[in-house]
Specification:
11-stranded parallel sheet, 3 helices
């Protein structure tokens, strides 16, 4: 991978433009219209990262998803320097507020362990693209926070225990591996705003479990109008026959929208699903194109463009 194709190079050994990822981000001109490309050399970068809203059009590229790791170990309930307890948001290893952010061949990790809510990345910016990235954690790994944020994940790996993909954003996951850890839990906890037509869409994904996984629901509604669709995907035998959970509130059954289409695997048991979920027809499934879901934004224009 040529350094000449990047504006900045981050290397822990001092062989680049900067030794930390945060220093490279801080050096990006505010509200730049052109792309700023940052190559992050292999290594573990133990930094609590912030990409401010003013650092637009940033692309982070690692040397390999397993070799370039952005990590921190905060968690909900941990005391900050003032003795105040962090919440879920405060636990985030990375805060992404800027629009038009792209990440490729990187790992975003929260390394705190199974200590409750511990976010690997909180994404607020609009038009965020992640390609060949890993998101490692346990509870609340990937926080799709922005209410007006559109996000696209392709060929990514996401793991967790409980509600490990959660939030308000509209997000499409294509060709991704979703791995459930531990005996039981929930893959998603969407809080889709009532006025939004789309929430989470998983297309051509593998929803797998680790050796301990026994009972996982595809989703439960963090807010009443949660929307999640799983289509053309493989579901492991750890996926509950009921498929979806109402979070202990029957009223959510009339407002949440949970649906599937043309899935396969031992965890796909459409006849056993809760009666308030949906099996889409082919005509209904045809509405779940990138153009429709992401409102005429095509993230594929940024794929593979180092």
């Amino acid at each position: 991978m040529s350094e000449n194709s990047h504006d900045f190079v981050v290397a822990r050994d001092g062989g680049g433009t900067f030794e930390t990822v945060q220093a490279a981000i801080d050096a990006v001109p505010d509200f730049r219209d052109d792309e700023t490309r940052i190559l992050v050399r292999e290594g573990r970068y133990e930094e609590k990262l912030v990409v401010p809203a003013s650092k637009t059009n940033v692309t982070l590229v690692g040397e390999a998803a397993t070799e370039t790791v952005l990590t921190f170990d905060d968690y909900s309930g941990k005391a900050n320097r003032f003795g105040e307890e962090l919440g879920t948001t405060g636990s985030s290893s990375c805060f992404l507020f800027a629009d038009d952010f792209t990440a490729r061949d990187l790992t975003f990790e929260n390394s705190a362990g199974r200590v409750g809510q511990a976010v690997a990345i909180r994404v607020d910016g609009d038009r965020a693209v992640f390609e060949n990235c890993r998101f490692l954690g346990n509870q609340d790994t990937l926080y799709t926070h922005g209410r007006e944020s559109r996000q696209y994940y392709r060929n990514c790996y996401v793991e967790g225990t409980v509600d490990f993909v959660f939030g308000w954003s509209t997000a499409v996951f294509e060709d991704c591996e979703i791995v459930c850890k531990g005996e039981s839990g929930y893959v998603t906890a969407a809080s889709t705003p009532a006025e939004k037509e789309f929430g989470y869409v998983f297309d051509n994904c593998d929803i797998l479990g680790d050796d301990d996984a026994e009972s996982f629901y595809l989703g439960r509604p963090w807010r009443p109008h949660a929307r999640t669709v799983v289509m053309n995907s493989y579901l492991g035998d750890h996926v509950e026959a009921a498929g979806w959970h109402n979070w202990g509130d029957p009223d959510n059954e009339g407002t949440a929208f949970y649906a599937e289409y043309d899935n396969e695997g031992p965890g796909y048991r459409p006849r056993d699903r809760v009666d308030w979920s949906h099996q889409l027809s082919s005509d209904e499934a045809a509405a779940y194109t990138l153009d429709n879901v992401l409102a005429d934004w095509d993230p594929r224009e940024r794929l593979g463009n180092c």
